[in-house]
Amino acid sequence: MTQVNLLELVQPNIKKLKAYHVDTVDCETMLHANESPYAPPEEIIEILKNEPKGFQLNRYPDPNCDGLKSVICENLGVDKNQLVIGNGSDELIQLIMQIFCGPGDCIAFPEPTFAMYSIIAQGMGVEAVKVPLDEQWDFKSQTFLEAINKHKPKVLFFSFPNNPTGNCFSESALTEILESFPGIVVLDEAYYDFSRTTFLPRLASHNNLIIMRSLSKIGLAGLRVGYGIADPEIINQIDKIRLPYNSNTVSQTIAEKLLRHFGSVKKQIDSIIQERSRMYTKLSGLDALHVYRSDSNFLLFKVKQEGLSIFKDLAENGILVRDLGAHPRLKNCLRVTIGTPQENDRFLSQIKNLIQPSKLQA
Question: What pLDDT, on a 0 to 100 scale, did the predictor assign at position 24?
């Protein structure tokens, strides 16, 4: 029998990592993960009813995702050689770093932002340079350019809109960086459907720009479908190291059907945008918290009392949100995903009860 010290075999950069934490509290109202509260519309379910009969599950999926790529090309006006399909956007983030970063290289991004940029970088032995956002959760181009000149990153990542703050960064600042940075610029537009603001037209004039999108926020989180749009040469390099058959048959088929019948999905998205506005107005009327404007499908807010206590109280009342207090810039901050009107009403009722002046700490 062999017994070895397994931790001695693990790479030092991996030992320092903490696993990405996902709350698994069983709550009736789940408003913590930026998912859509709506299942795919019934008309899409009807279309899909007979699809399983045609699934050749004993065969590998289409390695090129041609059907799914075709509908994305039609919708966006891009060519197939500009597209790559990922097992969620996370896979694409990892592939981009693998291609453009080596030992001792670094990436840069605003902070706070999507945690996976840093986690993936550290797991690959790549330094993560974090440029602090200002009090409005934005940045000046000069601040970022100074960090670029100092650290010489190979890749820049911008969550646009930004998670967890919810806002789109200054387009003029991003444009100035894109115009002057000689490396790769990644615009992570996972929440594009709620901001409807994009840098996609800039692809024609900037071959170092990569745009990422996701279907996870609009009803297909369980299928893990993300895609990247970039210069054909970048796509060619990604395809060299992308694992074979990284997108399964079921995900490809359902994603294609959803995008071909997008009208009913758009109605769901419109409802979420309307509810976001209503939720923002209601939360803005509460003196015991501050809510930030959002271009996404969630709202970030800061309470005057202990955020973790509010998080736990909400969970005890059947509502799960995201506690962000572990980040030094997000002390007593919580993030709530926009749900159905009924879910949102339940949240609003509970949060109002929990932060009444009598409950505030002295």
Answer: 66
Number of domains in the chain: 2
Mean pLDDT over each residue of the chain, to the nearest integer: 92
- Label residue 28 left, alpha or beta by phi (over 0 means left) and psi (-120 to 50 means alpha): alpha
What does the alpha-carbon distance between residue 27 and residue 29 come to, in Å, rounded to a whole number?
A: 5
Residues 199 and 288 in one domain: no
Q: 253: domain CATH number?
A: 3.40.640.10
Mean pLDDT calculated for residue range 89-100: 96
Residue 11 CA to residue 315 CA, distance in Å, equals: 37
To the nearest 10 degrees (0 to 180), the angle between helices 88-100 and 232-241 is 100
> At a CB cut-off of 8 Å and minimum separation 6, what does 287 contact?
357
Asked which of 216, 242, 261 is the last residue of a domain, the reply is 261
The reply to whether 53 falls in a domain is: no
Give the HSE-up count for residue 85: Cα atoms under 13 Å, Cβ half-sphere.
29
| Listed residues 229, 261, 293: the one ending a domain | 261
Give the percent of the chain with pLDDT over 70: 96
